[in-house]
Amino acid sequence: MRTVTEADISIFAGLSGDYHPAHTNEEFASKTPLKRRVAHGLLTLSISEGLFLRTNVLNWEEEPIISLGFNNVKFPNPVYPGDTIRSVFEVVNVRDSKSRPGSKVVTLRCECTKQTGEIVCEYDHVVLLLSKADQ
């Protein structure tokens, strides 16, 4: 779990260059349907991925991976400063790599929720799990 702070949102705006006032201007945000500043969707996804990496489920040091992309990304509910999010990952597909014999292509499905139980981000992350020969 991780609590999203106002500093996280400000830092992400600076890193990404996304200074949309819904994220950076409380007065502007108060006039939107969400009524206050919200975290960037991609910040939520990034934090979710960081939570997954901290679990070390795939043991990154012994089985390096390469991210191949994200599919079916959705942000059904907002994340506000002070919300605490958690992510649950499930392996939904494993197949042999066509381009790297011995390596596997793994699809992980993520559901990220906040303390209210609302889903705030869901997506599939496709990764290449490298064989010893590719390392």
Provide structural commentary.
This protein is of the alpha+beta class and 135 residues long. The chain contains four helices and five strands. The chain has one domain: Thiol Ester Dehydrase, Chain A (Roll). The protein has a five-stranded antiparallel sheet, with helices on one face. A hairpin with a 4-residue loop joins strand 4 (104-114) and strand 5.
Predict the CATH topology: Thiol Ester Dehydrase, Chain A
Please give the count of helices: 4
Distance between the termini: 31 Å
CATH class: Alpha Beta
Q: What structural class is derived from the secondary structure elements?
A: alpha+beta
Looking across the biggest beta sheet, what order are the strands in?
A: 1-3-4-5-2
Assembly state (oligomeric): single chain
Order of helices and strands: EHHHHEEEE
Count the beta strands: 5
**Integer-rounded radius of gyration:** 17 Å
> What is the CATH homologous superfamily assignment?
Hotdog Thioesterase
Query: Helix fraction?
Result: 25-40%
Overall mean pLDDT: 91
Strand percentage: 25-35%
Described by strand count, sense and barrel closure, the largest sheet is: 5 strands, antiparallel
Shape descriptor: elongated
Per CATH, the architecture is Roll
Spans of at least 5 consecutive residues with low confidence: none
Number of domains: 1
Secondary structure layout plus pairing:
Blueprint: E1 2-3, H1 6-16, H2 21-24, H3 26-30, H4 41-55, E2 65-74, E3 84-96, E4 104-114, E5 119-129
Antiparallel strand pairs: 1-3, 2-5, 3-4, 4-5
